[in-house]
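S.,

As promised, the adenosine-5'-diphosphate run. Input:
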Amino acid sequence: MLLWVMLACVGTADSKALQERQRQQMARGLPKQKPITGVKQVIVVASGKGGVGKSTTAVNLALGLTAVNPSKSVGVLDADVHGPSIPKLMNLKGNPELTDNNLMIPLTNYGIPCMSMGFLVDDAAPIVWRGLMVMSAIEKLLRQVNWGSLDYLVVDMPPGTGDVQLSISQNIPVAGAVIVSTPQDIALLDARRGAEMFKKVNVPVLGLVQNMSVFQCPNCHHQTHIFGSDGARRLAETLGVHFLGDIPLHLNIREMSDRGQPVVVSSPDSPEVSPLVHSVASL
Ligand code: ADP
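Predicted complex:
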């Protein structure tokens, strides 16, 4: 019996030493985080799946942040290099000008400076890049932009949990991640993977936004939960993170987004927009 106790003690001491060694090696192996010049806080908006409303939420979150705190300056970085949608959502077009020291000057609309790969390549040109080219594009978008002075930079991440997401989370200090999901199981599975990835790289998950939860027929007002109900709320509970808001599936959100007039500025007082503003206020 005594032998087992002694072995157990040695084992615990050994495993503690091993854990400490692994921690030191991890710390040595990880890239050193370097802040983005002029930016105080970076908030990333992520989703497991594409098409769940991540970019729509990102722009409205950025606009909501300035609406809630008018004295704060907010910018948007579109890190979705394969499918940049910020130019359309923010109604912006054109090539960024350069400063004397060759930094790109973001394009601005609604008071929000934005940078996107969409400003640098042709609209219709498919971005068929291999991993290394994508990483080098991300590095340029992170380091070669003159943001001036920003309180918040909202980063619209590409969907998923791949190299780009990891590299952004490890190379710059990220204040927190907002995860967007529909209430559907298949989207929630990936949202959960996203949340776990951020936890692993020590990025605080600020909360989950449930998007497209309920559709209300404009004629008879009957409500339908097309993608299920409350899945993201339950996932937030399971993960122990905040549930930031429940945004309905609404024609106005789609139409205004397509026109480049985000709903937080074009229809701030409509009922479908208040959950968006509420989610910003609870950040
Ligand atoms: P992601 O960035 O996750 O790929 P997007 O933000 O581009 O998704 O949204 C995908 C499509 O869904 C867009 O056409 C957008 O206008 C629409 N959309 C997003 N959220 C809503 C919503 N709550 N109601 C209606 N349409 C929405």
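The radius of gyration is 21 Å. The chain has one domain: 36-282.

- D.
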